Amino acid sequence: MPGLLATPAVAADNAPYKVAEGNKVDAQTLSGWKTWRAMACERCHGAAQEGMVGPSLVNSLRVLSKEEFKTAVLKGRIEKGMPNFDTSKMVSENIDNLYAYLKGRSDGAIEPGRLQEIGK
User: Fold this and answer.
1) Are 26 and 16 in contact (CB under 8 A)?
2) Quick check: 85 and 74 in contact, CB under 8 A?
3) C-alpha to C-alpha distance for 45 and 36, rounded to whole angstroms
4) Pairing of strands 24-25, 116-117
5) 29-82, pLDDT tens digit by residue?
6) Among the listed residues 8, 100, 1, 20, the one whose alpha carbon sits nearest the alpha carbon of residue 57
7) For residues 25 and 18, what is the distance between their CA atoms, to the nearest angstrom?
8) DSSP three-state, residue 29
9) What is the pLDDT of residues 85-118, one digit of tens each?
């Protein structure tokens, strides 16, 4: 079924993140993880991003484009219980970094849990 493989795991050289050893990431991706933590997204999406009240982001980022992700986060999906975060300076300034972190989780490149910066 060709539709199932429409969004393959991103090759390392095209990925929006850099990761080593599963839990060491580039500074931008680390900033995305810190945004995730600061905004307490795990309350709805689970500590490992695998869903609770809100959907699994590990699964969602396999099918959502970056623009669809940004729209969902910034504008919300009020009818589904997802608030908008476009008034959050932290989220607005780190939306690309947040995407990079969650895309790395979805691709299986970044392990759940605490992250640190590569080389530190």
Assistant:
1) no
2) yes
3) 10
4) parallel
5) 999 999 999 999 999 999 999 999 999 999 999 999 999 999 999 999 999 999
6) 100
7) 5
8) helix
9) 999 999 999 999 999 999 999 999 999 999 999 9
Helix 27-38 and helix 89-106, axial crossing angle in degrees, nearest 10 = 110
Q: Which residues pair with 19 in a beta bridge?
A: 25
52: nearest Cα among 41, 61, 63: 41
Residues 86 and 93 sit within 8 Å (Cβ to Cβ): no
Residue ranges of the alpha helices (H) in the chain? 27-38, 42-45, 57-60, 66-75, 89-106
B/e letters for 36-59, b = 16+ CB within 10 Å, e = fewer, are: beebebeeebbeebeeeebbbbbe
